[in-house]
Write a structure and sequence with these properties.
This protein is of the alpha+beta class. It has one domain. It contains 9 helices and 12 strands. Helix 2 runs antiparallel to helix 3. It starts with a helix and ends with a helix. Bound molecules: protoporphyrin IX containing FE (HEM). The site of protoporphyrin IX containing FE has 26 residues, from strand 8, helix 7, strand 11 and helix 8. Protoporphyrin IX containing FE binds next to strand 8, helix 7, strand 11 and helix 8.
Length: 355
């Protein structure tokens, strides 16, 4: 528990103000054309996201300004999306004038067990995601976008990177701040990514929302110093995979572990992260995870966890509930983030926020 207490102490000390994150050593993506399919919406392009990102959340003030502000943001994002930049926006629940038009599950992200959400790093009416192949192209695109939105009030910002961003055995992988490879449990084809992340016509959602995605962002501080004091074997039992992705029983990362053959958790503990996250290997959680590492000053690093799904309850919320009490919890503290909805391509959604 000492580690979480330390995270809580440092969190309180640094709570004032948002932003100021620094990009750290990241290799650039071997950005084959297969990763940048022209037609896919920016948030779902390819199996691996671009390695640098800035997340900028805004508060939109004034009823009458809402639609104008959203239209301006949409145009600004369209102007930078393409080539070495992939950019998209997502809507918070506050932009919907009527509940009839609001995506069914969209609400203010609740505080889950153990969270200490800092209001200056959480929620927002609108969030822009500007991702790119280098920190420089992202920064240029951010500056261009902010110039186009001079009236809008930034609520919080976060900068992220994906070290060792790559495609391996068809999966988009990177290295998280605990030095573990992330992404093995993600889908490896465009069709499966779309299937997990895109709202369909039979889900009872407002018709404008079909083709959109629910996006969850969690700013998770990681106690990297305490983590570093554990042996690699202990760390691997907490995650439930070897650092590079192989399963603890030796099964290659590309195959399914058979947890049923280990009912008491002798090989893969019952409270290991992957075992809690995805206990039924034949039915993986219907989410697409696309997280970034962040550094915020000398004392804070962590994960900008982000995932997309067609159904918030069956996706993120089901996994988050199962993770309660996992062994990893004592090394983590969620301090921010929010629930958002990425509208489908086009601008028909603008009307939904007005009516
Ligand atoms: C607290 C920080 C976290 C760390 C350090 C972390 C780390 C990892 C690692 C190393 C893996 C194994 C490789 C992979 O499949 O990507 C993994 C898998 C996974 N994580 Fe996390 N994770 C974190 C938070 C979360 C959260 C908040 C969720 C969702 C609520 C989540 C959901 C999952 C899922 C669904 C898998 C795939 C399981 C599988 O199919 O085997 N993780 N995570």
């Amino acid at each position: 528990m000492t580690s979480r207490r330390k995270l809580l102490t440092v969190s309180a000390a640094t709570a004032a103000g948002a932003g100021g994150l620094t990009a750290v050593g990241v290799t650039s993506l071997p950005n084959g054309s297969s990763n940048r399919q022209k037609k896919a919406p920016a948030h779902l392009r390819g199996v691996v996201p671009l390695p640098y990102a800035q997340f900028i959340s805004f508060d939109i003030t004034g009823e009458s300004e809402r639609v104008d502000a959203l239209r301006a943001a949409h145009q600004a994002i369209m102007a930078i999306d393409g080539g070495s930049v992939a950019a998209w926006l997502a809507l918070g629940e506050g932009v919907f004038a009527s509940s009839t038009n609001k995506p069914r599950h969209l609400k203010r992200m609740p505080s889950f067990a153990g969270d200490v959400l800092d209001p200056v790093r959480s929620h927002g009416d609108l969030i822009l995601h500007i991702t790119g192949s280098s920190a420089r192209v992202v920064q240029q695109a951010v500056e261009q976008t902010l110039r186009a939105l001079p009236q809008q009030q930034v609520r919080w910002r976060a900068d992220g990177t994906r070290p060792e961003n790559r495609i391996e055995n068809g999966r988009g992988l990177s290295r998280n701040p605990f030095h573990f490879t992330e992404g093995h449990g993600n889908p490896g084809t465009a069709a499966e990514i779309t299937e997990r992340a895109t709202v369909r016509d039979y889900q009872g959602e407002p018709s404008w929302a079909i083709g959109g995605s629910y996006e969850v962002i969690r700013i998770i501080r990681l106690a990297t110093d305490f983590w570093g004091r554990d042996t690699i074997e202990e760390q691997e039992r907490i995650i439930g995979r070897r650092k590079e992705g192989r399963w603890l029983d030796g099964t290659p990362s590309t195959e399914r572990a058979i947890f049923a053959a280990d009912p008491h958790g002798k090989t893969t503990p019952l409270d290991a992260h992957v075992r809690r996250a995805a206990p039924d290997r034949r039915n993986p959680p219907p989410t697409v995870r696309r997280s970034y590492n962040y550094h915020r000053g000398p004392d804070e690093q962590g994960l900008i966890f982000s995932c997309f799904q067609s159904d918030l309850k069956k996706g993120f919320e089901a996994v988050q509930r199962r993770l309660q009490g996992e062994a990893l919890a004592k090394y983590t503290l969620t301090v921010g983030g929010g629930y958002f909805f990425v509208p489908p391509p086009g601008d028909a959604w603008l009307r939904a926020t007005a009516d």
